[in-house]
């Protein structure tokens, strides 16, 4: 699918009209700066998604999109089970329910300045990070099943947080209809000592300062102001989520063939939602979601414990927790009628608009907080979902900066040790599990997150509330 087939629809929307086996158009949300660098593979993958059975309205592409497995990362697609719709493991991704949690601290930049180094060291020691790193908990298979069914609620019941935390988490901390019996023993084994760990890659725990408030009214509702210190935790379901995808992909290849579905790309392996494989994957994927929610909840507990030791005046309260690798059953208005859809968001964040009944009552007027991670050397953002975004992209928006080059390419251009030094000169303390991992996550390996957020706002998918800049970053 050639980039040349892109047609500009509006200031921030570009269309690829249906052709060949495409059932719906591709809609790409981007401005001129981002569309100029769009990867042809993203267009091809999004067009392949548009050819899947039961897809509704459009195959959507967010401003931070880049090539993924089957679906582009930054892809959103909704399917109707009543019209032959499918579920695709590639449309959720390997890191099921990877997401961002933001915590308010009640502190200002001046409060942490005298203890920045001490706090950085304490976080680096107390937050397990890195490839294969285990945490404080080692759980039996039966206890893992409790995690997979209970999510963050399980963690709170075990003393890792308070019931108030659950009100600020998607699904109130636990996704229903999770069935551990459909998660393989190998997946459970991989997770036995990984609950409460960051993992590697682009995952992090970051202490940030609010440097700009873009919407004072919404910021007040969210309880943030300029000069505040917040904490962001970015991680997912670790090895368990990866194993769930690995286990189901070959099953979906077979199911697609037996269901008469011609796949434009083997990586788009899928199954009819109503099929046995489709239902079992959904049940297992929901376990992955609960695993990630429990993981971020335990990490929150560890973070609170560290702050109690270094800055006891801090009070870490949850702003919000939202995932960006999921498939959820939601109601959306299509052609004037409410329809129940299975919405895949891969590297895309749910961004429900004001007054949505699923939002906490005290946030409902403002719309859902949307937490956009940047890089360890650039800004992150807090956005708010909009009513316009509900109709444009099933209540979805970008999830981060989006990679501009591969990890392999990044390692050839940057040295981790030098990056740590250069960021220290900018007042950013980096603590990582390895210099190689830091090099792979160099800020220059990503798109400009401000460009991405600007395009998201121009498109009407979400609105800017606050800009955050890193002070301390713990990397996997």
Concise synopsis of the structure shown:
This protein is of the alpha+beta class. The chain is built from 15 helices and 19 strands.
How does this structure look, described?
By secondary structure, this protein is α+β, with helices and mostly antiparallel strands. The chain has a single domain (3-475), classed as tRNA-splicing ligase RtcB. The protein has helices at residues 32-35, 40-49, 109-112, 116-126, 141-157, 163-166, 185-191, 216-222, 238-258, 276-310, 387-393, 407-413, 416-425, 435-440, 449-459; strands spanning 7-10, 13-16, 26-29, 59-66, 73-79, 86-88, 99-108, 204-213, 228-235, 270-272, 317-323, 325-334, 337-346, 349-350, 369-372, 380-385, 396-397, 429-432, 462-475. The strands form 4 sheets. Strands 7, 8, 9, 11, 15, 16, 18 and 19 form an 8-stranded mixed β-sheet that branches. A hairpin with a 7-residue loop joins strand 15 (369-372) and strand 16. Helix 4 crosses helix 10, helix 7 runs antiparallel to helix 9 and helix 9 runs antiparallel to helix 10. The longest helix has 35 residues, at 276-310. It is globular and about 65 Å long. The chain starts with 6 loop residues before the first strand and ends with a strand. The mean pLDDT is 95.
């Amino acid at each position: 699918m050639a980039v040349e087939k892109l047609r500009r629809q509006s200031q921030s929307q570009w269309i690829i009209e249906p052709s060949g086996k495409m059932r719906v158009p591709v809609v790409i949300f981007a401005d001129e700066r981002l569309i100029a660098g769009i990867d042809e593979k993203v267009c091809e993958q999004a067009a392949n998604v548009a050819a899947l059975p039961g897809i509704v309205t459009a195959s959507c592409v967010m401003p931070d999109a880049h090539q993924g497995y089957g679906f582009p990362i930054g892809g959103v697609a909704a399917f109707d089970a009543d019209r032959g719709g499918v579920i695709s493991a590639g449309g959720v991704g390997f890191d099921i329910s990877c997401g961002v949690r933001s915590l308010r601290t009640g502190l200002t930049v001046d409060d942490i300045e005298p203890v920045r180094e001490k706090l950085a060291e304490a976080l680096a020691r107390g937050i397990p990070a890195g490839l294969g790193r285990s945490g404080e908990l080692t759980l039996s298979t039966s206890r893992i099943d409790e995690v997979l069914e209970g999510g963050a609620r399980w963690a709170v019941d075990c003393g890792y947080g308070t019931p108030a935390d659950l009100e600020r988490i998607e699904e109130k901390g636990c996704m229903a209809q999770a069935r551990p019996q459909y998660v393989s023993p190998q997946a459970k084994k991989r997770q036995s000592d990984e609950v409460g760990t960051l993992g590697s890659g682009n995952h992090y725990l970051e202490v940030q300062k609010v440097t700009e408030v873009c919407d004072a009214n919404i910021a007040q509702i969210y309880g943030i102001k300029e000069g505040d210190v917040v904490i962001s935790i970015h991680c997912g379901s670790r090895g368990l989520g990866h194993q769930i995808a690995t286990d189901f992909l070959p099953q979906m290849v077979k199911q697609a063939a037996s269901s008469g579905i011609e796949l434009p790309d083997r990586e788009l392996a899928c199954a009819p939602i109503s099929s046995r494989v489709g239902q079992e994957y959904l049940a297992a994927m929901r376990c992955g979601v609960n695993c990630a929610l429990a993981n971020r909840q335990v990490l929150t507990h560890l973070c609170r414990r560290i702050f109690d030791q270094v800055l006891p005046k801090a009070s870490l309260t949850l702003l919000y927790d939202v995932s960006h690798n999921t498939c959820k059953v939601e109601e959306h208005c299509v052609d004037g009628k409410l329809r129940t859809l299975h919405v895949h968001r891969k590297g895309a964040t749910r961004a429900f608009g004001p007054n949505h009944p699923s939002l906490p009552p005290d946030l409902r007027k403002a719309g859902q907080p949307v937490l956009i991670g940047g890089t360890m050397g650039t800004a992150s953002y807090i956005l708010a979902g909009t009513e316009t975004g509900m109709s444009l992209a099933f209540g979805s928006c970008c999830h981060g900066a989006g990679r501009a080059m591969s990890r392999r390419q990044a390692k050839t251009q940057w040295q981790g040790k030098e990056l740590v030094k250069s960021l220290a000169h900018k007042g950013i303390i980096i603590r990582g599990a390895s210099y190689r991992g830091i090099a792979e996550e160099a800020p220059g390996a990503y798109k400009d997150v401000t460009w991405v957020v600007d395009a998201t706002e121009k498109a009407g998918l979400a609105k800017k509330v606050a800009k955050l800049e890193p002070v301390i970053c713990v990397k996997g």
